[in-house]
Design a protein that fits this description.
119 residues, 7-stranded mixed β-sheet, 4-stranded antiparallel β-sheet
Length: 119
């Protein structure tokens, strides 16, 4: 089992920056993808950015060039640095971890952290 705890959300003005962090605990050795999704009111949850256990990153088109995902393997932590924030980035941001255990895979989610970008 993997437990994810996010931190760093809040209110920021458009054009500003914010960094989210997600600490993983439990069976973290088997996590092969770690990252972030978001869900805005009335919309489906969408991928923001992910990073694999070998450092390969993947970003949504809407955040490329503005957001950076990184990880600290020693601390089992993933970060999302967000810059040039826009009001449309307002959402609840969820930490995500994909776990592979032999032939089984599991998905884990954090409780979510609110990011609000004011215009």
């Amino acid at each position: 089992q993997v437990h994810l705890v996010e931190s760093g959300g809040g209110l920021v003005q458009a054009g500003g920056s914010l960094t989210l962090s997600c600490a993983a605990s439990g069976s973290t050795r088997s996590i092969n993808i770690h990252g972030w999704y978001r869900q805005a009111p009335g919309k489906q949850r969408e991928l923001v950015a992910t990073i694999t256990n070998v450092g390969v990153t993947n970003y949504a088109e809407s955040v490329k060039g503005r957001f950076t995902v990184s990880r600290d393997s020693a601390k089992n932590t993933v970060h999302l640095h967000m810059s040039s924030l826009k009001p449309e980035d307002t959402a609840v941001y969820y930490c995500y971890a994909h776990q592979a255990v032999f032939d089984d895979t599991y998905e884990h989610w954090g409780q979510g952290t609110q990011v609000t970008v004011s215009s």
